[in-house]
Design brief:
The complex is a heterodimer of chains A (477) and B (417). Helices cover 30% and strands 22% of the residues of chain A. Chain A is built from twelve helices and 22 strands. Chain B is an alpha/beta fold. In chain B, helix 1 packs parallel to helix 3, helix 5 crosses helix 6 and helix 6 packs parallel to helix 7. The longest helix of chain B is centred in the last third of the chain and has 19 residues. The model of chain B has no long low-confidence stretch (mean pLDDT 96). At the A-B interface, strand 17, helix 9, helix 12 and strand 22 of A face helix 4, helix 5, strand 11, strand 15 and helix 8 of B. The complex binds flavin-adenine dinucleotide (2 copies).
Chain lengths: 477, 417
Amino acid sequence: MQDVVIIGAGIIGSFLAHDLSKYDLKVCVIDKENDVANETTMANSAIVHSGHDPKDDTLKAKLNLRGNEMYEDICKKLHVDFKRIGAYVVATNDEELEELSRLYEQSKRRNVPVRYVEREELVKNEPNISDIAIRAIDLPSTGIIYPWEVAIALMEVAVANGVDLHLGEEVTAIEKSENGYKVITSKGVIETKYVLNAAGVFADDIYRMVSDNVEFDITPRKGEYFVLDKLNQPLVNHILYPIPSQKGKGVLVLPTTHGNTLLGPSSDFVDDKKGINNTSDYLGYVRREVGKLVKNVPMDKVIRNFAGLRPTSSTHDFIIEEAKDAPNFINVAGIESPGLASAPAISEYVIETILKNKLALVKKSDAIDSLPPITDMKKLTEEERNAKIKEDPRYGHIICRCEQISEGEIVEAIHRNVGATSVKSIKKRVRPGMGRCQGGFCEPLVVEILARELAKQKNDIVYDDVESNVLVAKKGA
Amino acid sequence: MREVDVVVIGGGSAGLAAACKCKEEGIENVVVLERDKELGGILNQCIHNGFGLHTFNEELSGPAYAERFIDKAKALNVECKLNTMVTHISKDKVVEYVNPEEGYVRVQAKAIVLAMGCRERTRGAISIPGYRPVGVYNAGTAQRYLNMDGYLVGKRVFILGSGDIGLIMARRMTLEGAKVLGVAEIMPYSNGLARNMKQCLEDFDIPLYLSHTITNIEGKERVSGVTISEVDSNRNVVPGTEKHFDVDTLLLSVGLIPENSLTEEAEIEMNPVTKGAMVNESYETSIPGIFACGNVLHVHDLVDFVSAEGAKAGESAARYIREELKSAGGFNCKAKQNVSYVMPTRINVENVKDKVEFLFRVRVQARNATLNLYKDGELFRSIPKRHVAPAEMEKLIMKKSDLEGIKESFEIELVVD
Ligand SMILES: Cc1cc2nc3c(=O)[nH]c(=O)nc-3n(C[C@H](O)[C@H](O)[C@H](O)COP(=O)(O)OP(=O)(O)OC[C@H]3O[C@@H](n4cnc5c(N)ncnc54)[C@H](O)[C@@H]3O)c2cc1C
Ligand SMILES: Cc1cc2nc3c(=O)[nH]c(=O)nc-3n(C[C@H](O)[C@H](O)[C@H](O)COP(=O)(O)OP(=O)(O)OC[C@H]3O[C@@H](n4cnc5c(N)ncnc54)[C@H](O)[C@@H]3O)c2cc1C
């Protein structure tokens, strides 16, 4: 019998698991994917927004402000990069100037650090700013992260503190039982007193498993992106937002913590909750919109496209509450942007305002806050690196030429407590395949290392999900 | 810091030829740095025949061709470091590398030869719409999986791009029991060598769809199909021309890009057309004493040209050390109408021994065309060409005496009716 089952191991499920792992509780996390953070948390703009934008009196506004405050400490503890590079919201005409001053006032009211930036300074700080940019507001508390790095690090701490992580297991039904719920999955039945529904775009479907009066819908709203290679001269130094519209925060341009540049997202409702395909129409839209913010966009440096689905709820706000007709079943639903920025505060809110009223939460005395990170050779001094290589020559064997990742780092990623088991999960943890050759050179080597370390045949190694074998047959077979 | 006469980066055909030539020229201290576990570069995975017709008058397999140069390098006592990745080069010719035995090391070179080869353009670079499942591979990666690891990436295959690697893989996968349903090429002509078109597609009845591109990739976990569409003369998709293929694999053979991150970090002047360095008649880049050759300079289709270019760069590195080269001065070599680029891009006749071999590519496929050569803007010579194609690199040899007296420019153009 579990105390709490968390459905979904995205950024929300990972924060919940991490935070609950500090208490004397039996916690289990279930995700249908083969790895943590494989859905919406894998495909978004990766911004810890300042909290300037959500409407007044919404959970989005409240939790975004609090989340932004919390991120720096958490990332430090987890040894994950978090950079407060700041953001500019850029106005390009009179109408937009009006909206800009509204945002300025709103930020002031919320105590979000903000100031105006006139064109002269804009051009100085952002040499590629478009010719039509007139004025901007600077939101210096805005930061960037890699969302799945945070989620993986959180889940590692959770598992180290005793959380039971079930990956590759889909929840197919939920039955009410005497003490709570029977969660029925593709692999078995898990009994629990409480259920936390953090299933992203599928949260309404999960809710329907326990309720006949589901009062909200989640509709996937797709965002498509371009990723640019590392550039010798950065395209932008800040996150650049256009003036927001009905469709959301608009098409952005921003650097990532690893030195790439993101262009996107588009924003369109789609029918398919797994519809993360790229389309020439939406990519074309992104390409055109980006031109309003910046010029000299080096489209010949594009190395990848991707798309993510926002779990947009019919209430237009986060839905974080106990279900009306299902006691102890708690929805954490509709977590679209600023879901990432709010995630630590969402988890805190669930625990402080809901769970604490129901459960006696007792802190464990032996819970840990963090684990030593995977060695990052790039961050070491030359002496430290050479000492490491002397100890273990695999740290001197470079596998990924674009990101310069050594065999030693890849082997570490495989043997973590939430270890990498697929090519994609290696890529998420230590980055081979993220660079300009997109794995063309390193993927065969990564497959070889995975097979060796996991004692499998090469053709049993998967790219991502269980069916996605990289190699389909032995020659001559 | 250790001092070395010549550091050669890359132990493929270009690098090996360069290192051997340096030794033959009497340079003592030559080091080849190769990140792979063996020498030979891309040749190691090219197990088909067709290498060395010009150099050895024989049709060798890739590894057999490489073997000849590896043996020669051994005989000449060239120092080769394997599993050694060069991570940085500086303008003053300090080379940084890392390997499991020595860790991170810096050496001071008198001269450097860049011979890092090229990489394949990826799906991301051309933004093919659709899902991003497993089953989309660069043709060269699939070739490596098959020829070096012994595994097939799929059973029903479609190929985008008619580059040589794609054509060779069409034949190779067919011979291994896979079904290749077709090759789509966005241009109205093939990008592969004529002999590969014949021997790899026609002989196996694999259809080639010219002026077509992929407009959708289906399948969420694994590729389940692709859609191709016709394109018009501006390469825009023509609606209503879709054709669907049920396949589990899409191979991409959509171009090769010289591997120049080191070159760019050293701020060497680049040629936007070839994506390689600008070089002069001695294959010297904008930094005196740094030379470039092979696929890192411009993408070749014949290994013989690569070996010749490597030898030339190696010889120049030796001359540079002996202080026989003049780095400044000279005139520019330019591509005019219908020619995409001309190699080398600059010539100082004082450095030329007896002749210059120009390598260039045309932009169009044509029969009965004319090459016009201009000296300082004036037509100097016209050469009839029975057949030209962008896929086939052209070679032009000019005697030193023909180049003397040029002040500003030497230009090549192609005229077609
Ligand atoms: C285009 C785009 C841009 C965005 N940009 C930002 C931004 O810059 N800043 C920001 O703050 N937010 C941003 N967001 C929002 C942010 O990405 C999300 O709020 C956040 O990732 C949601 O996390 P999650 O854990 O709720 O969902 P997910 O990461 O989707 O996790 C849900 C998990 O539930 C699992 N699951 C679902 N159904 C089942 C089942 N039946 N059985 C088992 N497991 C199941 C899924 O496999 C998945 O792993 C953006 C979103 C998008 C799409
Ligand atoms: C698939 C294919 C089929 C071909 N078929 C034919 C044919 O039938 N006939 C023919 O004549 N020609 C053919 N060619 C053309 C010709 O063989 C190649 O162009 C030639 O071998 C390239 O030689 P290279 O030395 O320039 O590059 P490569 O062989 O690629 O060598 C470059 C070397 O540099 C190393 N390197 C790169 N960066 C670093 C670094 N930072 N540190 C250390 N080492 C580094 C690489 O590991 C590699 O070994 C073919 C080419 C390909 C790709």
